[in-house]
Amino acid sequence: MKKRLLALAMLFISTLAFAQQEDESTNDEASETEEEKGPWTMGGNFSFLINQSTFNDDWLGGGVSNFSGNLLVSYDINYKKGKITWDNKFLGDYGVTRTKDQEFNRKTNDRLEVNSVLGYQMGDSKWSYSGMMNFRTQFAPGYIFDQDEDGNEIRTLQTEFMSPAFLQFGLGAQWRDSENLRVNISPATGRVILASSAFTTTAGYEDGDFFGLDAGKRARYEFGAAINAYGKFKIMKGITAENFLNLYANYLEDFGNIDIDYTLNLVMKVNELISTNFTFQAIYDDNAVRGFQIRQVLGVGVNFTL
């Protein structure tokens, strides 16, 4: 029940974004014809966020000196000509923090994702026959941190680049109002979960312990249904919200158990170079952990339009 309520809440957020964007996207598209801008459009944003706190030895109020940095890249390559559309988005997000009393750096964010949807318009409607691809993994190793018997900090490898990696291919239909407003429904979707066998051959490993993979295996194959929604709109001048919603249900196992991945990126521009960025992400995937994975990032940084 909690999963369904969360899914409905996320859908409501995305629907609200869609509704507010519709009028703006219509006006924007009316100002420039397809022939004037050509079939290809490219662009995105690059942000570098930093946070830093420093305390000297005489500071009595408590606190530990620390520094953190986060890189965010969002880039679109889209094609539209006649009845054919091809929307591609690259997302990169990586951050680390360094605290004075800790031996190792800690990751604060790590995401690498590519989305692609090819569509062929149905008549004069906003619907298209579609084929979609989604790939996601991480850039760097992830660790669990602890202490040994002598109190020294130690770390244990938990994940790394391509372990895990998720690859989806699906056929279905897409509703597309603009490049900034679209929903893709794929009732026939294959998903592959990949990982190095080093993670599935450890002592005591049991089937399903690492993202659902069986012992000694490097891949898990699933077949199900997927919904992918994207909405980007301006809340007000200088404030832009970008919403991503991905839902997946496996026909072959626990079909009513829906995997959820929702991300909100909020960019509040101070000027052409400086912005405040807020990211919220919620993931539910019980092959990974039986609970919600939540991350939030807030920072002030340098923002570039690509």
What can you tell me about this protein's structure?
This protein is mainly beta and 306 residues long. The chain has a single domain, classed as Beta Barrel (Outer membrane phospholipase (ompla), Chain C), CATH 2.40.230. It contains two helices and 14 strands; from the N terminus they run ααββββββββββββββ. It has helices at residues 2-30, 34-37, and strands at 40-53, 66-81, 84-99, 106-121, 127-137, 142-147, 153-159, 165-178, 181-194, 219-236, 239-250, 259-269, 274-284, 292-305. It has a twelve-stranded antiparallel barrel with strand order 1-2-3-4-5-8-9-10-11-12-13-14. It has a two-stranded antiparallel ribbon with strand order 6-7. The longest helix has 29 residues, at 2-30.
Compute the CA-based radius of gyration.
21 Å
- Largest beta-sheet characterization: 12 strands, antiparallel, barrel
Q: Which class in CATH terms? A: Mainly Beta
Oligomeric state of shown chains:
single chain
Proportion of residues in helical segments:
10-25%
The overall pLDDT, averaged over residues, is: 86
List unreliable stretches of 5+ residues: 15-35
Taken together, the total number of domains comes to 1
List the strand order in the largest sheet.
1-2-3-4-5-8-9-10-11-12-13-14
Strand residue percentage: over 45%
Number of helices: 2
Distance between the termini: 42 Å
Question: Which secondary-structure class do the elements indicate?
Answer: mainly beta
Query: Overall 3D geometry?
Result: flat
CATH fold category name: Outer membrane phospholipase (ompla), Chain C
Report the strand count.
Answer: 14
Helix and strand run: HHEEEEEEEEEEEEEE
CATH architecture: Beta Barrel
